[in-house]
Every structure is written in structure tokens, then in C-alpha cells.
From TrEMBL:
Family matches, as InterPro entries: Cyt_P450 (IPR001128), Cyt_P450_CS (IPR017972), Cyt_P450_E_grp-I (IPR002401), Cyt_P450_sf (IPR036396), Cytochrome_P450_fung (IPR050364)
PROSITE patterns: CYTOCHROME_P450
Protein name: Cytochrome P450
Family: Belongs to the cytochrome P450 family.
Keywords: Heme, Iron, Metal-binding, Monooxygenase, Oxidoreductase
């Protein structure tokens, strides 16, 4: 080993050991939930799988009960494994459970400290959250785009059924791009593909244990030239920033040429808030909106399709209602005005959000900002908390027959409350700002897809619903056969949807 390597190793050993010792001494004076055995210094870092962490966390919940503690480097994580404790801590005590732990790699380097989802609970977060809330809760603004793009979705399924998963991604992305930038996305649009690539790079690196500096934030104090992880993070940052900047540059060019549609972007660039932002902050506002509006809808549509192929009994019940409202012989497509009569579709959407938490299988970490006590436990400030999404969704204590896709479970008094009955959008003050848009995106798309298409398993490639991948690298997450319900439904799509394929802006 050369002198530089020896120096780096010495610094790392010193900082890591110091950080671990401080964390160990601090935790020793508090009382934490059952601790999952690990190894000195690194704790449980090497036990958690890099991907599909839900099944791993569920097994621990089955063993330890409503809460357990893990150590990822110097960070102490408490997993909340029931809705009861999530409500008690992350909802009712949200004022002190809503910050974020430090992420020097994924937030600091890869996001230029500007990705709102990882910001601490502070004034900057509140300002950006207000901007996002204003645009993402204007449901009437989205409805015309969701109507148009869901018709394009049907056309894409009709013409290219083997590209159903790409069509889902295009649909979700095109809705948000229409609102934010006043432009549509095309099937297999290379810009959309690259956006999802940068999002998957972020999600890959956000997993606990992937980056040593996120497990031991003290290593961020190393001189930059000794931070061997930094060049990789900077490359991802530049790639991500390029994707975001490309959209803003297109927007500014069209504004200058006088042919840009009015949209969020045109208004946003003229606000006083923008005047005080750096380029990176401004671009990550755009980027966060693009990601928030694209990924949850895309993934949930795929989950519901998997549920339709593996548990077809509920599809028949959905069809009874769809046919009664829209016609047994493909008379017309479901519309927004049908929502009150299509209660079962609303239940399908809620079940899609609950069934297999796929984006955040172990929730999203928040940080306690001051010492707290709960049911005999004493938590130190700085403890990281997360809701164990997979364990809660698949717990028989929470849901009857939890592994089954069964929308009927949501046909209750809370049906019209999209956030009740599941944690897909998160708890407390960090609940996803785009939950209204996400729910509406999925509702109109799945109502029309179920009315027009059948989804069945490929006999030689059955769907394992417990291992549907989080990250797909622009490939299908599973195999499924997509077929038309009838020629009448094909004719309906051609009659009502062909025109939207010629609309460009």
C-alpha cells in the first residue's frame, strides 16, 4: 500500500472508530427497542440486502414485534412495524420526528444539497415544500392532461402491448411534463429514459449501507482529495443536473421564441423565490417535480396489473361496475364524472398502493430532533426512524389475508380518503406532496385499462409478486400477457383515442 492509501486508511479507521464509540456511549445511556445483533463498528450494515429490503425487514418484524433497532454504521435506526406506533410517533409527534439524517453522498454530492426529499426540516425545506404543494395539489390543473394521456396510454397498449411497462412510464411522465414544462412525452422518449436512469441511480445509492460516508457521516470531514467515493457521486450529480437543465433550457428557448404554452415552469421562472435560488436549487425543484410525478404512478400501475394477473377474481367484480356504467359492449370510456359510481375502482387504486410497497420497501428515514420517551423506551436526538412499509402492508394484524390483492378491503367509510388505510405516501409532515396527483393518475388510467384489456400470466413465466424488482433498468418488471377484451373495445380505442396521438405541444 502506498503512502496515500495508508494515510486514507488511517483517517478512515480513526474517524469511524471515534464515531462508533460516541454512538455506542450515547445509546448506552438510553433504552432502545430490541437490537438486531450485528458486528462491531458496522452493526447491521452488511446484513441488509442492497435491493428488495422489504422481505428482510418483514422477517425481523415478525421476530421482534412492533419495533426493533438496527445499527447502520454510526447511525441508529428504529423500525416501526405497526400502524399504531407509526401513528403515535410519526403522525402525532411529527414536530420532532420529521427531519432527515445527514446523507453526505446522496444529498450532499449527488444532489448538491438541493434534493427536497432529503432536506432537514428547516426553513428552506418549508419554502420549497410550499412551492411543490401549490403545483401538486391543483388537481383540476391535471385532469385534462390525465384524460388526454390516459387515452394515449390505451392507444400504446393497443398498438404495442408488449411495451406496456414503457407505456406506463410515458403516461405518468407526460402528465407531469405537460403541467411543469408544457410539453408531452413520447413512448421510449430518450429524455424520459434518462430521467428514470438518474432516479434509479439515486434510489440505488440511497439504500442503507451502500455508501460508507452515509453510514458514517463523520467521514465527510476527510479532505476532499481523500474521499474516494466523491468522483462517482460527482459524475452522478453532473448527469442528473444535465437531465434537469435540458428541460429548463428547452423551456427558456421556447419562451424566447414565443411558442411556449403557459405552465408551471413559465410562472415559476418569474417568481421572487427563483431570484434567490442558485442554479442547482432551481434545477432540483424542476427535477423533484418530474420525479415525484412520474415514479409512484408508473410503479403502482404495474403493481395493479400484476395483481390482476395473479388474483383475477377481483377484476370480474371491477368489470361488473365498469360495464354497468360505461356499457357492456364498449359504448364509452370511463370518465371523471363516473367516479362516484365506480367506487370499486377507487378501492382498486388504494389496494394498489398497499399491496407490495415497491419504491420504499422499508419506508423513508426521518430523524428525531430532540430526546423523546415512548412506552418505556428513551430515544436520543439523532435517532433515525422509519416505517417498515413491507412489514406493515403484509401483516395479518393489519389486514385480513394481506398477501392477496383484494380491493374489497377498502370498501368502507374511508374509501374517499386516499391516504387512509396504507402508508404508500408516507406519514406525518413528510407525506408525499404529490399524493393527490398520484392517486388521480392511477385512477383514470386503471379504470380505462381494466375496461378495455385483459391481463393474464404467461404460463412458463409466472409472476412472483414477492420479488417484483424496485429498479428495472428500463426493462419489464415481470412478464404478463396483455390482450383486448373484445374487438368492440379495440374499435372504441380507435374511435376515441387516435386523435390524441396527433396532438403535439
Amino acid at each position: 500500500m502506498n503512502v496515500t492509501g495508508t494515510l486514507i486508511l488511517g483517517f478512515v479507521v480513526f474517524f469511524v472508530a471515534q464515531s462508533w464509540f460516541r454512538s455506542f456511549r450515547k445509546n448506552a445511556s438510553y433504552k432502545l427497542p430490541p437490537v438486531v445483533p450485528g458486528i462491531p463498528i458496522f452493526g447491521n450494515t452488511f446484513q441488509i440486502p442492497a435491493l428488495q429490503q422489504g422481505p428482510w425487514a418483514k422477517k425481523l418484524a415478525d421476530k421482534y414485534g412492533e419495533m426493533f433497532t438496527c445499527q447502520f454504521g454510526s447511525q441508529t435506526w428504529v423500525f416501526l412495524n405497526s400502524s399504531r406506533v407509526v401513528n403515535d410517533l410519526m403522525e402525532r409527534r411529527a414536530a420532532i420526528y420529521s427531519s432527515r439524517p445527514p446523507f453526505p453522498m446522496t444529498q450532499g454530492i449527488m444532489s448538491g444539497n438541493s434534493r427536497i426529499v432529503l432536506m432537514p426540516y428547516n426553513e428552506e425545506w418549508r419554502t420549497l415544500r410550499k412551492i411543490m404543494h401549490q403545483i401538486l395539489t391543483s388537481t383540476k390543473l391535471y385532469m385534462p392532461f390525465e384524460d388526454l394521456e390516459s387515452k394515449q396510454l390505451l392507444w400504446d397498449y393497443l398498438e404495442k402491448p408488449d411495451r406496456w411497462w414503457s407505456a406506463n412510464g410515458r403516461y405518468a411522465n407526460s402528465v407531469i411534463m405537460s403541467v411543469i414544462f408544457g410539453r408531452r412525452s413520447l413512448l421510449d422518449d430518450p429524455d424520459v429514459v434518462e430521467l428514470f436512469e438518474t432516479l434509479e441511480l439515486f434510489l440505488e445509492n440511497q439504500q442503507p449501507g451502500v455508501n460508507i460516508v452515509d453510514a458514517f457521516p463523520v467521514l465527510d470531514r476527510l479532505p476532499k482529495r481523500l474521499q474516494w467515493w466523491r468522483p462517482r457521486g460527482e459524475r452522478i450529480f453532473e448527469k442528473t443536473k444535465k437531465v434537469y437543465a435540458r428541460e429548463e433550457e428547452r423551456l427558456r428557448r421556447k419562451m424566447k421564441e414565443g411558442n411556449q404554452k403557459e405552465c408551471f415552469g413559465t410562472a415559476f421562472l418569474q417568481t421572487k423565490e427563483v431570484a434567490g435560488m442558485s442554479e442547482t436549487q432551481r434545477l432540483f425543484v424542476f427535477g423533484t417535480l418530474m420525479e415525484a410525478g412520474s415514479d409512484t404512478s408508473r410503479v403502482t400501475l404495474g403493481q395493479i396489473i400484476a395483481g390482476a394477473a395473479t388474483y383475477p377474481d377481483w377484476v370480474e367484480r371491477a368489470r361488473v361496475q365498469l360495464d354497468a356504467v360505461c356499457g357492456h359492449h364498449a359504448e364509452r370510456l370511463p370518465q371523471w364524472e363516473d367516479r362516484d359510481q365506480l367506487r370499486y375502482i377507487t378501492a382498486v387504486v388504494k389496494e394498489g398502493f398497499r399491496w407490495r410497497p415497491n419504491i420504499a420497501e422499508i419506508g423513508a428515514p426521518t430523524m428525531l430532533i430532540k430526546d423523546d420517551e415512548y412506552e418505556g423506551y428513551r430515544f436520543p436526538a439523532g435517532t433515525v426512524f422509519t416505517w417498515n412499509a413491507w412489514a406493515i402492508a403484509l401483516s395479518p394484524d393489519e389486514y385480513e389475508d394481506p398477501e392477496r390483492f383484494w380491493p374489497d378491503r377498502f370498501l368502507n367509510d374511508d374509501l374517499a380518503s386516499p391516504l387512509k388505510g396504507h402508508w404508500a405516501f408516507g406519514p406525518g409532515r413528510r407525506v408525499c406532496a404529490g399524493w393527490k396527483v398520484g392517486e388521480m393518475n392511477v385512477w383514470i388510467a386503471i379504470a380505462r385499462l381494466l375496461y378495455c384489456f385483459d391481463f393474464t400470466q404467461v404460463p412458463e413465466k409466472p409472476i412472483d409478486t414477492m420479488t417484483i424488482p424496485q429498479l428495472t433498468k428500463h426493462t419489464a418488471p415481470f412478464d404478463v400477457k396483455v390482450s383486448l377484451r373484445s374487438e368492440a373495445h379495440a374499435a372504441l380505442i380507435r374511435r376515441d383515442c387516435e386523435e390524441v396521438t396527433r396532438i403535439q405541444y
